[in-house]
């Protein structure tokens, strides 16, 4: 049970996180629906998108109850994302959790880039994008793509980096976040922000 694993992990932390974002909530081999109430965590508000929808992996976000938060509708046709506005007395922040499939189409990639720009236009405060972006061919230390990864792959990755630059967004993860067996470890899960 993934919820039990999450609860166990959280109990091992010295301090509970204010926000938890999770991608690929739905099982890859869809057999039965994931019910929202099964995912509830004490002390957190739950926001989700595409939960138990066939052909979607689903994304969700937990925000501590003592934080003012609401889900925001961004007019985007990108497939899997959720945007939550966090408000404090002095500022607001838009937090966006994104899942981009490794099989994403050129059209869907463009929609994701448009989403990043749209969130910037809707928000007057900070922007934070987290999730599984599945760009294994980007070297984030040099902001370059690896040679030999294919023209379409490099074109998509280069457009993604260009979009981040145009929107004055910084990407912080520079260590591999995923490794399987003998595969080369990759940076697939990213933290992107409008603030240093």
Query: How far do the termini sit from each other?
Result: 37 Å
Number of helical segments?
Answer: 3
Structural class: alpha+beta
Arithmetic mean pLDDT: 87
Structure, explained:
With 196 residues, the chain is α+β, with helices and mostly antiparallel strands. It has helices at 2-11, 106-122, 151-166, and strands at residues 19-23, 44-49, 59-64, 68-72, 81-87, 92-99, 126-132, 138-139, 144-145, 170-171, 189-193. It is 22% helix and 28% strand. The strands form 3 sheets. It has a 6-stranded mixed sheet with strand order 4-5-6-7-11-10, covered by helices on one side. Helix 2 (106-122) packs parallel to helix 3. The protein starts with a helix and ends with a strand.
Summarize it.
The protein is of the alpha+beta class and about 200 residues long. The chain contains three helices and eleven strands; from the N terminus they run H-E-E-E-E-E-E-H-E-E-E-H-E-E.
């Amino acid at each position: 049970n993934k919820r039990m694993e999450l609860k166990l992990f959280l109990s091992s932390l010295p301090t509970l996180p204010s926000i938890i974002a999770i991608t690929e909530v739905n099982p890859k081999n869809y057999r039965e629906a994931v019910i929202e109430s099964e995912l509830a965590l004490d002390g957190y508000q739950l926001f989700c998108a595409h939960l138990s929808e066939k052909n979607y992996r689903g994304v969700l976000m937990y925000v501590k109850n003592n934080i003012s938060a609401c889900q925001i509708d961004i007019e985007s046709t990108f497939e899997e994302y959720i945007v939550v506005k966090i408000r404090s007395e002095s500022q607001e922040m838009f937090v966006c959790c994104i899942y981009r499939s490794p099989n994403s189409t050129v059209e869907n990639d463009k929609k994701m880039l448009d989403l990043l720009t749209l969130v910037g236009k809707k928000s007057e405060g900070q922007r934070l994008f987290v999730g599984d972006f599945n760009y294994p061919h980007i070297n984030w230390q040099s902001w370059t793509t690896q040679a030999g990864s294919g023209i379409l792959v490099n074109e998509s990755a280069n457009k993604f980096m260009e979009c981040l630059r145009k929107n004055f967004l910084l990407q912080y993860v520079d260590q591999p976040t995923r490794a399987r067996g003998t595969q080369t470890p990759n940076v697939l899960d990213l933290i992107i922000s409008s603030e240093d």
